[in-house]
Structures are given as structure tokens and as C-alpha cells.
């Protein structure tokens, strides 16, 4: 690796331009007490895995007290730990262990909604004149309709988890809004008391020592609401519920709320926003440092390109040209101001190697190619637990194996329309549970995850795909990820170089350059099992190899680079001004 000269490392570059984040879904990471559920002591026990990988930040999916209707994204106490995961003391111990090793801790912040068992909602629900009534979205039935009958909901918004986004409350006769499950009522951010309560809670965590927040569906906190408090219907087929996004996301007060949060809460500590359905233009406004809103955003566009009209359960083959165009647009749009979060996998996405790669014949090659391509973009890369081991989709074969509320509710809703075989096919391709099977540590009975019965089945392929095997093999997915993390730390071109997309029309090769001063990197990735030739133009034949996923040298011939099955190469040259 090139040493980093001081003049190339301006002091005003924020640390996350050099950082890699690791996401843990605690429930599936490491169990220590045999109840089959991963826990905080389990993370503490495995901190060395993070250190070995070299990552800088740990993002923890929610560990707060929760009825676990949506695996912790339904919080009933923001200032306590769910007993399934441990105690506040366990969290403090983990925080200390991370800080000792120079890692930061980012907590998941779920404040678009709470659990219906949160005391705020319990109060809000108790009567129409309760002081907290207005903390949530309560509305009467549609005019002239009998409350509780189909179609009488205040608007035609559908829940992201199937069915209407409104639930009828018998006791007070009104409906409350829940964009996710009925146990996840949406908070009303229009109410300043709600915002103050959230900021107070965030400061409480920062005072405890955490380093920042990943903000769940943060662009849903501002809804399109009329001066009289009315909420609009959305486009939908007659008698059906529509996608609520157009009315419930990216509302007119989003930027105002985030700037207020920044003023009230942050003192150098940071926030990253999860923003489904956000455009590049929004992304830039949200992350332009001059605006003091968020430090980076997760986009969903590049992980929705293989979805048909039926969404995540309607999966089609990827057209690589769409992927290049999409990520290229985000790179260009946030080039001058703003910052991208880079990811393939998280707890909501099927495993990338099973999706855009080939998890059968070319698992190692395609997993490493995908890693190289992603990590060479401009932005902060995220690694989701197991991705660094080349873990694959679950390949479940019966409905009983599924646990995810979104998957189960969707299957219920579609049962009349689709055969069991069709349901299973759609779930196998699209279910969030694909990412939620336990981390495969070794080849023993439950993959080293638990001594008990895991809450969700361990993937049987742990007999060959596991951390112990990956660690032992110098050419493994794991060791490639280690090299990529080191490259991000050391190479200013990887951190800050300008991005330029090449070969936009090539259906099989992903190609781009990164340029900083007179240093240029060429990144090539083949999305094919067949040999490919990339027409890269003159001047690369003497370039040096920075990183690749084959051990033997790369073949360059004049203006062309030959690529083997799922091969990725990164070349470096000096360009004269
Ligand atoms: O398509 C969607 C909305 O456009 C959904 O996929 C949704 O945006 C996404 O799943 C949001 O995810 C986050 O919030 C959910 C939770 O279930 C997920 O696990 C979390 O990552 C509700 O809190
Ligand atoms: Ca446990």
C-alpha cells in the first residue's frame, strides 16, 4: 500500500471518509446462555472478530426493551435493554471494550414509531382527551362510513407489512396510523413535545457514551398533512390500499426536523439516515454538511432493481446496466456535496451473493467481486454480519421456517392467490429472513451460534461456509474483506477520489475510475461466469495491481483487460495533468 503523505490527508476530512462500519443483528450474532437468541455478552465475546476484520464502527440493530413484534424495531422503552439481549451493564461493558480497541458504537434509533406497548402510546390510546393523544396519528373513520368496516379507514394508505396502515380502536372509536405492523404506531412529529422527548432520549444515550445513531426510516417522520390536519389519499386501485410513500415520506418538514435535531442533540457525534424511497436530490440535501442534517444516507434504489411490480417478493434477474446507472447517479449526485453510505447486505435484504452473484458454482469469486466493486465506490462502506464470510440466502423449504413479520403477513395476504410452492419460491428469493439466519462461526451442530435451539434455523451449509474455515483459507472472502478495510484506511484515492463510470452499456462488466490528483484507479468487476473482455482504453498495460480476487496476474493486452468468471481487479496508474 502507498503511504499517505500528510498533504493528502486534510484535517477537515471527516473520519467517516476513512471508515468501514460493521452491522450486527444481535438476535442472530452469538448466543451465550443457550436460549437460542443472540445477546450482548455474545457480541462482547466476539469483539476480536471485528478487530481482526479491522472495522472502525459497530452499528447495532435495536436492543431496547421491546415486545419483539418486528424483532426490536418496535420499542417499548428507549432507555432500557430487552432482557433477551442482556442489561444496561452489558451494554456499558461492550461500549468500554469497543472504545478500548478504538471502535465506535452507533445505535439504531427507531423514532418514526414506537411499540403499542410503549407508555406513551398506552396513555395516548386511553382516551380522546389524554394529554398524549396527539403524540400519535389518531383520526376518525372516513365520513359517512361505519367505523371498523373495510374501506372506512381515514386514508387509503397501505402498511409496508400488508393490509391497511390504520387500526381501529374500539374503545375510543378512532383509528391510529401504523406504516409498519399494528404494534408499531407512528409518532406524530408535528407535536413539539414528541420531538423534545426524542431529543432528550438521544442525549441520554450520547451521555452514556455512544458515538452516533443510525436513524430508522427517518424520512418518514414528516408526513404531508393539511393545515386542518387532514391526510391525503394516495393513488391506488379501487378498493385497494396504496403505497403510502408519496404522502407519508419526505414530507415538507423533514429538513426542518432534522436540523432541529442536529441543533438540540449533536455535538460532533453523528447520524446516518435510512431513507427508503429517497431520490438523489433529497439525498444531497440531507447530507450536505453545510445544512447540518445527516452525515450520510442509505438509498434503496440499487437493491430494488431486481424487483417487479409486486415488490420484494417479485424478484427478477438483475440487468447490470441498471445497477451501474443507479449507483453512478448517486455517486455523481453526491460528488460535490453530500456523502453516500455503501451497502449490499443488511438485515432487510436477501444475501447479495445469492442475489447479484452466484452462490453455487462461484460463491467465493462472486462474493469477493461484489465486495471489491462496492468498497471501491466513494462513500462509507457497511459490512453486514456474515457478508464477510460469504454467507448465502437461507434456502428454506417450508413456511414453518420463516419468522419475519413482513414475510408471514405477505404470505397470509397472498395465500388465496398463490400456491404453496409459489409462496415458497417468492419468500426464498425476497424474504428478510435470508439475512437473519445465525452467523456461521464453525461447522459444529448449530454453527457455534448457540448450545440450544436457535430462534431461526441455522443454514445447513455451515458445514463448509463458516468463520473458522474462512479464517484458515488465505484466499477466502473474509481475508479479502480484511484487505478492503485496510485499503479504505490507507488509500486517499479510495477515500476521496472522484468517481467516473465507464462502459455503461456493457451488460456484464462493472467498470469505473477513481481519480485524486495524478493518481488513478481502474475498477473492473465481471458479473458473469463466462470470460469477459473489458475495453478500457490506452494507458493501463503498465498499471500495478492494487487488489483482485484471483491469485494469478491479470491479463492486459493493449487497451483491453481479460476477466475470468466473476473476476474483479483494481489497477493503479499515474496520470499526468
Ligand atoms: O419498502 C419499504 C419502504 O419503502 C420497507 O422495506 C421499509 O422501508 C424498510 O423495511 C425499512 O426498514 C426499517 O424499518 C422497519 C424495520 O422493519 C426494518 O427492519 C428496518 O430496517 C420498521 O422499523
Ligand atoms: Ca441468549
Automatic annotation (TrEMBL):
GO biological process: oligosaccharide catabolic process
EC number of the protein: 3.2.1.10
Ranges where the Glycosyl hydrolase family 13 catalytic domain occurs: 23-436
Organism: Nostocoides japonicum T1-X7
UniProt-listed InterPro entries: GH, GH13_cat_dom, Glyco_hydro_b, O16G_dom_2
Alphabetical UniProt keywords: Glycosidase, Hydrolase
MF GO annotations: alpha-amylase activity; oligo-1,6-glucosidase activity
Origin superkingdom: Bacteria
Record-stated family: Belongs to the glycosyl hydrolase 13 family.
Protein name: Oligo-1,6-glucosidase
Amino acid at each position: 500500500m502507498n503511504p499517505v503523505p500528510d498533504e493528502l490527508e486534510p484535517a477537515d476530512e471527516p473520519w467517516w471518509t476513512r471508515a468501514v462500519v460493521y452491522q450486527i443483528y444481535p438476535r442472530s450474532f452469538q448466543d451465550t446462555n443457550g436460549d437460542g437468541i443472540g445477546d450482548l455478552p455474545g457480541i462482547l465475546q466476539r469483539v476480536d472478530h471485528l478487530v481482526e476484520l479491522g472495522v472502525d464502527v459497530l452499528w447495532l440493530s435495536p436492543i431496547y426493551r421491546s415486545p419483539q413484534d418486528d424483532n426490536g424495531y418496535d420499542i417499548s422503552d428507549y432507555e432500557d435493554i430487552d432482557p433477551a439481549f442482556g442489561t444496561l451493564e452489558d451494554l456499558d461493558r461492550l461500549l468500554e471494550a469497543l472504545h478500548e480497541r478504538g471502535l465506535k458504537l452507533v445505535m439504531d434509533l427507531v423514532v418514526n414509531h414506537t411499540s403499542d406497548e410503549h407508555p406513551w402510546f398506552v396513555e395516548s390510546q386511553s382516551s380522546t382527551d389524554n394529554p398524549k393523544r396527539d403524540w400519535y396519528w389518531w383520526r376518525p373513520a372516513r365520513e359517512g362510513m361505519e367505523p371498523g368496516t373495510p374501506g372506512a379507514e381515514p386514508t387509503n394508505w397501505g402498511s409496508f407489512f400488508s393490509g391497511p396502515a390504520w387500526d381501529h380502536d374500539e374503545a375510543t372509536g378512532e383509528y391510529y396510523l401504523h406504516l409498519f405492523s399494528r404494534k408499531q404506531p407512528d409518532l406524530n412529529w408535528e407535536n413539539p413535545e414528541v420531538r423534545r422527548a426524542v431529543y432528550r432520549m438521544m442525549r441520554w444515550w450520547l451521555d452514556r457514551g455512544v458515538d452516533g445513531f443510525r436513524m430508522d426510516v427517518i424520512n418518514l417522520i414528516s408526513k404531508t398533512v393539511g393545515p386542518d390536519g387532514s391526510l391525503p389519499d394516495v393513488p391506488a386501485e379501487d378498493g385497494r390500499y396504496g403505497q403510502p410513500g408519496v404522502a407519508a415520506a419526505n414530507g415538507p418538514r423533514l429538513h426542518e426536523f432534522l436540523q432541529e435535531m442536529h441543533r438540540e442533540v449533536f455535538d460532533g457525534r453523528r447520524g446516518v439516515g435510512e431513507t427508503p424511497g429517497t431520490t438523489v436530490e433529497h439525498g444531497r440535501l440531507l447530507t450536505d454538511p453545510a445544512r447540518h442534517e445527516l452525515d450520510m444516507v442509505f438509498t434503496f434504489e440499487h437493491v430494488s432493481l431486481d424487483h417487479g411490480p409486486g415488490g420484494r417478493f417479485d424478484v427478477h434477474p438483475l440487468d447490470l446496466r441498471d445497477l451501474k446507472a443507479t449507483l453512478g447517479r448517486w455517486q455523481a449526485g453526491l460528488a460535490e456535496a453530500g456523502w453516500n453510505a455503501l451497502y449490499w447486505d443488511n438485515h432487510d435484504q436477501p444475501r447479495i451473493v445469492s442475489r447479484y452473484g452466484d452462490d453455487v458454482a462461484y460463491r467465493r469469486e462472486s462474493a469477493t467481486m461484489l465486495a471489491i466493486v462496492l468498497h471501491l465506490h466513494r462513500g462509507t462502506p457497511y459490512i453486514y454480519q456474515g457478508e464477510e464470510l460469504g454467507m448465502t440466502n437461507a434456502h428454506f423449504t417450508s413456511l414453518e421456517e420463516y419468522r419475519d413479520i413482513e414475510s408471514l403477513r405477505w404470505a397470509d395476504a397472498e395465500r388465496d392467490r398463490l400456491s404453496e410452492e409459489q409462496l415458497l419460491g417468492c419468500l426464498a428469493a425476497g424474504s428478510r429472513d435470508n439475512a437473519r439466519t445465525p452467523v456461521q462461526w464453525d461447522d459444529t451442530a448449530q454453527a457455534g451460534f448457540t448450545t440450544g435451539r436457535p430462534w431461526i434455523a441455522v443454514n445447513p451449509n455451515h458445514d463448509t461456509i463458516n468463520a473458522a474455515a474462512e479464517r484458515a483459507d488465505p484466499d477466502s472472502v473474509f481475508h479479502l474483506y480484511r484487505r478492503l478495510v485496510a485499503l479504505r484506511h490507507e488509500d486517499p484515492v479510495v477515500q476521496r477520489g472522484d468517481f467516473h463510470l465507464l462502459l455503461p452499456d456493457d451488460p456484464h462488466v462493472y467498470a469505473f475510475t477513481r481519480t485524486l490528483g495524478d493518481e488513478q484507479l481502474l475498477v473492473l468487476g465481471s458479473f458473469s461466469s463466462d470470460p469477459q473482455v473489458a475495453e478500457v482504453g490506452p494507458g493501463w498495460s503498465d498499471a500495478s495491481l492494487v487488489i483482485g480476487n484471483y491469485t494469478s496476474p491479470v491479463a492486459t493486452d493493449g487497451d483491453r483487460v481479460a476477466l475470468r468468471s466473476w473476476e474483479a481487479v483494481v489497477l493503479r496508474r499515474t496520470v499526468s495533468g
